[in-house]
Amino acid sequence: MCGLGDKDRRQISPPPFVKVSPFDITTGRPLDSTSIELSQLVLVVELWSPDETQDLTLNQNIQNVVDGDHLNNSTKHSNQPVSSDSEESMGDVPTRNLIGSTVLNAFSLLNDRHEQGIWFILGDLSVRIEGEFKLKLNLLDLSTDRSISAFSNTFKVYSAKKFPGVVDSMPLGRVFASQGVKIPIRREMRD
């Protein structure tokens, strides 16, 4: 979990990896992943409730603080939010609950069994609010204008006080990091 500032960001750990298994839409047979144009594949990530009914990517409850130049002289130096009933109010300004790289390009990588595949690495995602969530993964093929969506498993975001500790890096993450992918990796594995 992280707060509203960018300095206290704590990324989802371990970082999620998404494997794409392409297939021929008419025959249903798998396609060779090396024949796919990776620049045409984009993954868009959203934050959702565990029951998959609510998009929680944006938080609509944080009110904008209006710049002093827009206020009259009596309130010019005030840092208080302007009420939404006021003429000067800009209304609620949405903030992002899911921050980091939410739009990603694909990588062609070898997995831990030395098999070539198409992967999306979600190594720079943070959630600003505590609770249980799912990620909605929207895969777009820009060459065909087709898209497909899926949800991750449920994961839990802790407050700083309740945080149980960093999870060890996964072996697959170490393999991807050795191929040049920027992933936060723990230097030593715990026993």
UniProtKB/TrEMBL annotation:
Bias (Polar residues): 71-84
GO cellular component: nucleus
Family matches, as InterPro entries: Velvet (IPR021740), Velvet_dom (IPR037525), Velvet_dom_sf (IPR038491)
Region (Disordered): 67-94
Signal sequence extent: none
Subcellular location: Nucleus
Residue ranges constituting the Velvet domain according to the UniProt record: 1-186
Any Pfam family: Velvet
Biological processes, Gene Ontology terms: sporulation resulting in formation of a cellular spore
Residue ranges the record marks as coiled coil: none
Keyword terms of this UniProt record: Nucleus, Sporulation, Transcription, Transcription regulation
Protein family: Belongs to the velvet family. VelB subfamily.
PANTHER family tied to this protein: SPORE DEVELOPMENT REGULATOR VOSA, VELVET COMPLEX SUBUNIT B
Protein name as annotated: Velvet domain-containing protein
